[in-house]
Amino acid sequence: MSKDSLRVAIIIGQDGVGTTAAVWFAGQAGQRDDIEVDIIDLAEACLPEALPVIGGRVPQSVQDLAPWLAEADAFVIVTPNRSFPASLKNAIDWYRDEWKAKPVAFVSYGDESGGLRAVEQLRLVFADLQAMTVRDTVIFHDHRGCFTEAGRPLEPERCSTAARNLLDQLVWWARALKSARTQEEEIMSVNREIHLVSRPAGEPALSDFKLVETAIPEPGEGQVLVRNTWLSVDPYMRGRMDDVESYIPPFPLGAALDGSAVGEVVESRSADIPVGATVVHFLGWREYAVVDAAAATVIDPTLVPAQAFLGALGTTGLTAYTALTQVAPVKEGDVVFISGAAGAVGSIAGQIARKLGASRVIGSAGGPEKGKRLIADFGYDAAIDYKAGALPAQLAEAAPEGIDVYLDNVGGSHLEAAIGAARPGGRIALVGAISGYNEPVPGPGNLFQAYTKELNLRGMLITSYLHLFGEYIPQAISWLADGSLYTEETVIEGIDQAPAAFLALLRGANTGKMLVRLA
């Protein structure tokens, strides 16, 4: 056997004639010195008939078969009848990456069609798995009488010629695709990540960040390797760039930043999370991350796009929901004011306020175009352009009888204007203060009104409310499904552009959630 031999897995979809055909074909392949054959009988694999729920534990029998499929350079599927057997489709469904970018050939048997109808259906299935199917096939008609008792075809010359042609194609494609996979693996062996190299003095600059290449890390026991596909870009990260202890530690210099991310598990050493699962975790700002299985949450990207779990279905959406239901609860008929209304939290909060019974929802954003979007798309009744004039006057015009609830994403002059406009007993949720993240801004000069009006000003850290995910996620999914919750994303492409995306976020250049797409 040559060191350059290809490993070909012959998969028996159904016993009986299928076994005879597989053994005969293995003999044909064994005459070549460039092929090493494994025969996989699905009757012996004992794969469960029911697939698990998303993120469910992978059965041992599935784990046992996976290496045989992963090590194969090509596959030959032996299938009967007008449609392929359930056992074969079940086996295909249990795996994904094991089939990807590999050639698949078919040996079929049946009556008049010789199993070709099953083959054509299987071509569609494997195409969806990004496998390449070989056109030539080996066909056995009249399967009950196409082999001798010794297991030889009744038409040996025709069948042997068909097998040679099939194997020639299979070997050519196997070598080409193996070479392509090897090149891709070499390219993908490098991990790129964004490091913080200096602490910003005021507004951050691109020079505070550096794109660094490292080796892709190896997962340990109980860990998974995740290829990140989406990164979340969030204002709170600015505070972590200063060397100041807070509710969350500062970013160390010369190390990768982190943040929420969504990605695909490409290697797993955890029985709880299989390869191919889509997960949310907190090691973003890098292309590959090793994550403790306990720190990764498996999500179902068939329900909504995966990146929604960084926005409306992530802490962004939960922040909007919690602020208006727990921290500054909206009551029926309330007038609600929200700053940063076109941002990630604000664009969702306006719609939630309406769902909670607010009679009027007012939003503040920068520029007339964003103001139009607030009213047209995000559920607001009125929009304030904070760049166009004094906030107190604009807020008084939008809410002449005052406001009951204020969700503060900005701080500074917005908070002062809200305190001035608040009715007695008003509620204020202090969620963020982006206006003061780069440079300190004066506190509200009218803070005394907080006690003369008996206002409730309450700060919130979303980490204290994560237990509400179980209540919020089903509700938010139903809103997204029925179209009553509209979301928008500002998407920047590539890990190298993540710092630029962050600076744009601080300038208010985004509408909705700011994201970086890696794949």
Automatic annotation (TrEMBL):
SUPFAM superfamilies: Flavoproteins, GroES-like, NAD(P)-binding Rossmann-fold domains. Gene3D superfamilies: 3.40.50.360, Medium-chain alcohol dehydrogenases, catalytic domain, NAD(P)-binding Rossmann-like Domain. Keywords: Oxidoreductase. Transmembrane segments: none annotated. It comes from Streptomyces zagrosensis. One of its GO terms (molecular function) is oxidoreductase activity, acting on the CH-CH group of donors, NAD or NADP as acceptor. SMART domains: PKS_ER. InterPro entries: ADH-like_C, ADH_N_2, ER, Flavoprotein-like_sf, FMN_Rdtase-like_dom, GroES-like_sf, MDR_fam, NAD(P)-bd_dom_sf. CDD domains: PGDH. The keyword 4Fe-4S does not apply. Coiled coil: none annotated. Residues 204-516 form the Enoyl reductase (ER) domain. This is NADPH-dependent curcumin reductase CurA.
